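In response to reviewer comment 3 from the previous cycle, which asked for concrete evidence that the modeling workflow produces usable outputs, we include below a single protein chain processed end to end. The sequence was submitted unchanged, and the resulting structure tokens are shown without manual editing.
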Amino acid sequence: MLIQVLLADDHTMFRQGLRALLEREGVRVIAEAGDGREAVQLARQTAPDVAILDLTMPELNGIEAAREIAASCPRTRTLLCTMHAGEAYILEALRSGVHGYLLKSQAASQLMQAIRDVHRGAVYMSPGISRAVVESYRTHGDATRDPLSQRERQVLQLVAEGRTTKDVATLLGITTKTVESHRSRIMNKLGLHQTASLVRYAIRRGIVQP
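The workflow returned the following structure tokens.
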């Protein structure tokens, strides 16, 4: 039986190339998304075996998309495919419960290995990722847990991307007053008082890229 895959990446050319590669290897691509929010919607509609997600997508990054897919599509395994090997990104991905983390610099054979591994229930970590980072998380993972709720992280990403309060409200389907309330709670929880500080925090946590 063919492995059915959802592809999510905001770079159309990369996504098309990845699709061609996977189809040559006998993998069936059943849906494509250009951002994290669309990826979640398509995952709910198609229930793929594996969702391959870019990490730094607009509106909803790959980590938050993976969290939402896990909640609504428990049989779908998630694989992050990214150029980012920084500790902040890796730790945040591990916290989110993703099943695989693959660096885009790896060969196509590694991609297929990653897909097969996560599909059969294993956890895949790219050979380029420091094992020390993974072991540190296993030992001290709870010590650096993000104090923000899932909705607060979504608001933070959009604010860090430069979206207005009205834009955030429209994208999340909430009122501007609710957005302002979330933003106030975020600042209080983090002890921050300026938008620039929120952006720096989002970068450190791997929520947005520099």
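The first helix runs from residue 12 to 24. We consider this sufficient to address the reviewer's concern, and the full set will be provided in the supplementary archive.
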